[in-house]
Amino acid sequence: MTKLFSTTSVAGYDLGHRVVLAPLTRMRTEANNVPGDLMVEYYSQRASVGGLLITDATAVSQLGIAYVEAPGIYTEAHIAGWKRVVDAVHAKGARIFVQMWHAGRQAHPANTGGVTPVAPSALLSLEHAAIRDKDGNIAEAELILPRALETDEVPEIVEQFRRGAILAKEAGFDGIELHAANGYIFEQFLLDGTNHRTDSYGGSIQNRARLLFDTLDAVVSVWGANKVAVRLSPSGTYGTMSDSDPHATFKFVAEHLNKYDLAYLHVIEPRVRGIDDIGDQPTAVSSAEIRRWYKGVLIVAGGYTAKTAERVVANGGADLVAFGRLFVSNPDLPARLRNGIPLAKYDRSTFYGGDARGYTDYPVGASA
Ligand SMILES: Cc1cc2nc3c(=O)[nH]c(=O)nc-3n(C[C@H](O)[C@H](O)[C@H](O)COP(=O)(O)O)c2cc1C
Question: Would you say 202 and 253 are in contact if contact means Cβ atoms under 8 Å apart?
Fold first, then answer.
């Protein structure tokens, strides 16, 4: 029996193994950002008995959408769509957390109904959004200068997450993960490269972390702390992100998270930038440091293989390992890893948007 395939418990749920589906934006909703049949099939394929799945980044408001046809969780139709996904996953014996998301300055007017995206400060990200162009094709689009939120507008963002948390409960999810990674709104507030505010949301790390912790308090009031999780990318630069002292910033965040009895903390390793492998980074904040600072359940992600995942769990570096790209092309990844079955290669050209091709047509067959 390997450690990766030993049982564990997360959020009070018994899990049969420690191979987690990482949150993956796949841009495959139906109209109005509603999950449909294709997504039901996709998640069902990746559900295994005793497994844990995390959804695509799911927007809590239209103003938080960076990528066309990314899912939402702010209307009744979203709940109905997600409920079908959740039911299908539960029918396979797995658990599913929704990753709750607001893109902040990474959002694009083509996806927000023409509204200018908001951010802690009016600073431009050099990243791209994904939109539908005039001909209806999916296209990359440059971002625009965001509008800095007024001080009294920030609680509205918290409220959107609180409302989303209520809807997530109605949809039947097993828990929620706040997306505080990869250059979206929480990280834009946390890091001093993107937060130049002088009010109670800027300056000290306590202030820069206020949006995250106010939101955490709000969603915990809905779900209870042990069904709530947070995702961080302490070394990430995706989204034109930077911080003058990432070690101090993330030490504060990780240690402050100890005050909650969260479901888990989910951390992306330095060796991955967004969806690209970039090798080890000498100045980065590793998951080993986070492990020292944070006392609860830790999920790690980023470039893991069967061998390295087994090693990190066996040596106590993490409790579970999330897989992204390998789960794209291997819906039955846990069974393949457990049984040493060769892995199918993923096709990057079908990561974002489109139909069943590169989404639900990878071979399934291995059983756990
Ligand atoms: C197509 C694609 C979409 C992604 N979307 C998200 C997302 O919605 N939320 C998130 O936190 N990370 C997202 N990521 C990052 C993954 O969750 C994961 O951290 C990354 O792929 C590294 O893990 P891997 O080496 O196992 O792929 C995405 C990655 C890929 C490849």
Answer: no
